[in-house]
Amino acid sequence: MSGNPTDDTPATPAVQNSEDRRHYMLLFVGLAVLLVALPYLVYPVFAMKVLCFALFAVAFNLLIGYSGLLSFGHAAFFGGSAYVTAHAAKVWGLTPELAILAGTLASAFLGLLIGALSIRRQGIYFAMVTLAFAQMVYFFALQAPFTGGEDGIQAVPRGHLFGVLSLSNDLTLYFVVAVIFMAGFLLVYRVMNSPFGRVMRAIRENEPRAISLGYQVNRYKLLLFVLSAGIAGLAGGTKAIVFQLASLTDVAWNMSGEVVLMTLIGGMGTIFGPIVGAGIIVSLQNYLASQGSWVTVIQGVIFVICVLAFRSGIVGVIAQKLRINL
Amino acid sequence: MFELLGIPPAALFGQLLLGLINGAFYAVLSLGLAVIFGMLNIINFAHGAQYMVGAFVAWMLLNHLGIGYWPALFIAPIVVGAFGIVIERLFLSRLYKLDHLYGLLLTFGLALILEGLFRNEFGVSGQSYGVPASLTGTVNLGFMFLPIYRAWVIVAALIVCLATWLLIEKTRLGSYLRAATENPELVQAFGVNVPLIITLTYGGGVALAAFAGVLAAPIYAVSPGMGSNLIIVVFAVVVIGGMGSILGAIITGFALGLIEGLTKVFYPEAASTMIFVIMAIVLLVKPNGLFGKRA
Hints:
The complex is a heterodimer of chains A (326) and B (295). Chain A has 326 residues and is an all-alpha fold.
């Protein structure tokens, strides 16, 4: 991840040929079917929570899978967008899609600022720098007049989509969230397989060579960072509308750690890993919610186990077994 | 009473003292991080948790065994340092051949485990730990009252920093350590037990964190969350100073504590974010940190 690719560093696969493309198409159709069936299998609110965090993890994974940069501060974009979205929907009275758009753009801009500074360092320094900047955003959220301090912004109206469709019904909102999730996920997939994605792969594999070929490496990294921050913001804003709440939890360092854990357990650098990881961690939190701090302990144990013995993650292991890219 | 820039001197020096005390903790903690990083190439995310455990060990020694502050100042670092050695042998030693980020992730997991366990046991709120009888009271310096314990914290932190620096720069063990940092294979070939040095280094770095924890116990509430917020600031301190130099870590720690204290006097709203702002500036001007050597 620090410019010396080894077997252990996560690398996001690129689609190589038409056969690959066909099996991705099948997987996407399968995912879409699952998304339609999900609210009838589990509580819609739970399903929405999974999708918001899955999109968040997809955004985080875009950065680590394509640049090897591990951000430990992605909560800043998730939570920052949650605050902006909540404020826009509640105080400015924007419709939910515009509120989420405002949150997403704010996060992308924040990503531009933090990214421009952070990509000046690599490896573990990058992780520390992003963590520190996220903590700065946390303190800002704690003190700024519009964020509501310890209370956060509560009772955010779900509103009417495009001013027409009421989102107070959980099932209706679920399908909106599912569309947002799928759009974000397909965008990431599209970016990964665009010329931009190819250049990012080249930089990841051999940065000096990419530089010598004339690529402005830092510009590419920054663009990727902004994209990742924006999609994390899309997830955070959607979450604020779903739960009608933006709070300090969304910007705290624990949140940054959680998204790392989701991606790690699902499989860093895989396409579907973050979704699986998000499903597992959110389920875990739901079922253990009454156990208090044991959730933290268990998350820590999963971290340790994953790092010591399970670095490819669940999807990574399945992909190796089946010898396909997932 | 005279005034400086419209600020009463008692308030100014009071905040400077607080800043210096924060700086003492930044210095000791970033020193430990730098020592560990130099040898293991791992950022010890559990450093804050180990600092917290140090404080709790002192608290438990007092409340369960009746062992007071002075013995705790030695026992807690030894206990927590030994725990660190076990961690290094069991977990970290398996990661040296991998990307350094895995060390960060593993120690982050350890930090979660420690914090969660202590929160289960003690709850979120803090336990109080009294100032030892021999260090209670204040001294009147004329312009302000100086609590003796706070003065002791600064002195103790300075002594520990200096001792660590001397150990690393001026002793035979330190020269082995520095040599092993530069070229572990060669030093190993000379018959020095490098894995043992690595293990002891981690234990020593962790012991430094625990020592800071005991120092902090009478000042801050002893609580499970006391380490995690502090360690993020210390990360920023480390980025500002760069991890190439022991002395650099010490100076940066104290200096940033002072700057933070001054910010509290003149612009309190920015006090909690000041260090991060400085980090942003340093990243712009000197990305490798003020004392950083490596690119």
